[in-house]
């Protein structure tokens, strides 16, 4: 079980397919990137034609995380980058309607929430065929369909 934010950052940095569908187009990846006077982004993935800014929270996602990522996106847009997207990662709020409504109100920014243990496995096992991470209770690999070994 992953207990610290830095471990979640490491998991996503080394396994970007968990959060970015176009992960095969990644040409550069960085962690802990200081962005002028607005803060430090956990991960930045540069793809051909797009930039993804990933902000990870160990706790429950709140609207202030959206504002944080918007500040980061604005830095890149000010530098002339056009396709800048945000991904916020954390625990799902008990009532996610407030977060959803806030994201919809900020729809000029492309920010996607991903929830730990819902979208991203924290208790996980690797597939022996494709070496990708799956939820610990999965019977088949969601990436290649291989039957996963039971962990006793």
From TrEMBL:
GO molecular function: endonuclease activity; nucleic acid binding
Any Pfam family matching the protein: NucS_C
Domain of life of the organism encoding this protein: Bacteria
Domain Endonuclease NucS C-terminal span(s) in chain numbering: 5-92
Name listed for the protein in its UniProt record: Protein belonging to Uncharacterized protein family UPF0286
Organism the protein comes from: Candidatus Magnetobacterium bavaricum
